[in-house]
Amino acid sequence: MSAIVTPSKSRAEExxxxxxxxxxxxxxxxxxxxxxxxxxxxxxxxEPVIYYTGNSLGLQPRGVQEMLxxxxxxxxxxxxxxxxxxTRPWYSYHEQFREPxxxxxxxxxxxxxxxxxxxxxxxxxxxxxxxxxxxxxKILMEGPxxxxxxxxxxxxxxxxGLDPKDALLVLSPREGEHTIRAADLESTIEQQGESxxxxxxxxxxxxxGQFFDLPRIxxxxxxxxxxxxxxxxxxxxxxxxxxxxWDVDFACWCTYKYLNGGPGSIAGCFIHExxxxxxxxxxxxxxxxxxxxxxxxxxxxxxFIAKPxxxxxxxxxxxxxxxxxxxxxLAIFDEATMPALREKSxxxxxxxxxxxxxxxxxxxxxxxxxxxxxxxSQLSILVHDEPQARHVALQASGxxxxxxxxxxxxxxxxxxxxxxxxxxxxxxxxxxxxx
Length: 435
Ligand SMILES: *Cc1c(COP(=O)(O)O)cnc(C)c1O
Hints:
By secondary structure, the protein is α/β, with parallel strands linked by helices. It has two domains: 12-60 and 337-430, Aspartate Aminotransferase, domain 1 (Alpha-Beta Complex), CATH 3.90.1150; 69-333, Type I PLP-dependent aspartate aminotransferase-like (Major domain) (Aspartate Aminotransferase, domain 2, 3-Layer(aba) Sandwich). 34% of the residues lie in helices and 13% in strands. The chain contains 15 helices and 15 strands. It has helices at residues 19-27, 64-78, 98-105, 118-129, 147-159, 164-167, 182-192, 214-223, 243-246, 273-276, 292-295, 324-336, 338-356, 387-396, 420-430; strands at 38-39, 50-51, 60-61, 112-114, 138-142, 168-171, 196-202, 227-231, 250-253, 268-271, 364-366, 379-383, 399-400, 402-404, 408-411. The strands form four sheets. A seven-stranded mixed β-sheet has the order 4-10-9-8-7-5-6, with helices on both faces. Strands 11-12-15-14 form a four-stranded antiparallel β-sheet, with helices on one face. The protein has a two-stranded antiparallel sheet with strand order 1-3. The longest helix is centred in the last third of the chain and has 19 residues, at 338-356. It starts with 18 loop residues before the first helix and ends in a 5-residue tail after the last helix. Pyridoxal-5'-phosphate binds at residues 117-119, 146, 148-149, 202, 206, 231, 233-234, 254.
């Protein structure tokens, strides 16, 4: 399990705003060589873009094309025998991800499985873990949440005959504020915990980049006997976690954001070992969750026997081609390690913020929490002065950044492939005088 790096607040660094300094930071960056392991899209003139949307779709690791070509070749030559071929047999293909994936999220290998996609896994986890009763029937989530999560949660309430108006508790930032106060979250759980069946928050909020205090929320919610699950779409591969030690009940994440698994790549799921081995837990079952010992007995055995770990929640045999890129990507995570990535992420994001905040706050306001304990790689910038025109100017200079109308620009300086010099160029372009 990866160690958690808690960046110390006292170590606020002094930066300089000249270009040479940005170059110096890159030269002394211990992770600088990892950039070469990725394909960086190019501008029309052939220069690489500044890719700041790794929180939306991560870049392609080099080597993926060859690995996919190999699987296609195996399919061509071996067909059904590919399930039991010598290298990366398809039958047990998903098993190779357990350990590296567990290291990224701080879990035991038996607690982690790659399957389906994120929203599907949220549904599957709610089938097992949302058990409303007369007295305890609410789901607590944060606002604004990614729409898919809201749709999934509301649909679970409705299919259990519950009205989201009574059963959905959405905790949002206070009027005039951008992020959720820890105290508000805690007092909601304190006061309403007895009626809350499930606390289902994101680890890092997609819009503000706020990183919630997951261990604290988990222990508080569990002291009220709520079940605790997290959507780690923006947290996995971004911030170090210790899901097992924190006693989180379940978690789901996609692998195409910080984990560079490619568009629509297979999603991850964590089920704490205290539940994963409990084969009596209700679930939507399929043959791939069945104990492999009896999986192929087909007509001889029509009673579902759950595999007593996270694998027991699988339904179908998994899509090999949408898992292959992750072999390359997770190997890179193992080489770089989460603590080292976190250290660079904290510093590079602080540097970018520092550059932007040298401008008057009447123009730019970073709404992501300042304290690195409460953010990952993402900065969400409220642009008060010509937001749209500035986004167009960014695009025109080959900077790929996300624009949320009316005026939020979200950027993710990703420690695996972004540089300090890019942060410097981004800030210069964003903050230029507009005519
Ligand atoms: C990216 C993201 C999703 C996307 O869901 P898919 O099922 O992978 O399409 C859902 N929820 C959150 C919080 C996200 O950030």
